[in-house]
Amino acid sequence: MPKGFFALHPFTAALYFLFAVVIPFAFLTPAAIVPGAVMSCVLLFSQYGFAKTKSGMFFSLGFLAVIFIANIAFSQNGQTVLFWIGYRPITLENLVFSLLTALMFFSVITWFALFSRVFDSDRLLFLLTPLSKTLALLVSMTLLRIPLLYERQKTIGQMRSFFVTPVKGNRAKRLFVRLKRLLGVFTALLVWTMEESVETADSMAARGFGVGKRSSYRRWRITARDMGCIAVILGLGAAFILWESLAGTFSIFPKLTVGTFTPAGAAFTLCYLCLLSLPLIEH
């Protein structure tokens, strides 16, 4: 159940997530990426605790390491050579680019993990139904199906484990048998899901889905608190985007250029940090 800032109107929370996700994609700079990566973890832990989110966090950290290593392995861009691995140069620019790219994807994954916990199906339907009823239904059912299919796959695998026997033979034979068993699990999962989808479609038709204007079980109204948060999000986000677009001096290729520290740059970076910290400040 969302609490604090995330319990506000769905549009307010959606606008916050929009700025939090788009800015790291638009500007590959430490000022845009590092605060987002840190604050996404802080907010996820503050909302749901470390115990409930540690498995997803470990996956995100592993994904970060894979992206970092892959970028270093397959890219040789940059002019400042730090050392050589065989005939492959390792440049400062490539290291910085790989680290920022990995942090960007880590930040986006964490933001979407928080988004999926904050926006339940009712909030998504309320937010997206004015745009498209079909899109709202598709998004909400997709977010529901992902954890549901994962749990069902575990259930099917546990049931099948009572009937399988250890495989003897060489490595190729064991791999073939394992793939065959996984195919059986996938087939059972697909049949289960298709049968339930028919029942869901019949239930929706019986309840009059698509016949008239949809009514929402819960109604949210824009309050003065929402208006204040929306104004702060738009003001701080626009200020940081304009500064990065017009006065940003950080560049990676062909040679790393950091630029000089200025009070204006620090102030606009602080604006972005305040934007990301709004759920903590407002709460």
Q: Helix segment count? A: 9
Q: State the shape.
A: flat
How many beta-strand elements?
Answer: 2
What is the overall pLDDT average? 81
Layout of SSEs?
Elements: H1 10-26, H2 30-74, E1 81-85, E2 88-91, H3 92-118, H4 121-128, H5 133-160, H6 171-206, H7 224-247, H8 263-276, H9 278-282
Antiparallel strand pairs: 1-2
Helix pairs in contact: 1-3, 1-7, 2-3, 2-8, 4-5, 5-6, 7-8
Could you characterize the architecture of this molecule?
The protein has a two-stranded antiparallel ribbon with strand order 1-2. It is built from nine helices and two strands; from the N terminus they run H-H-E-E-H-H-H-H-H-H-H. The protein has about 280 residues and is mainly α. It has two domains: about 180 residues, no CATH class; about 80 residues, no CATH class.
Question: What descriptive keywords fit this protein?
Answer:
2 domains, 283 residues
Briefly, what is this?
The protein has 283 residues and is mainly alpha-helical.
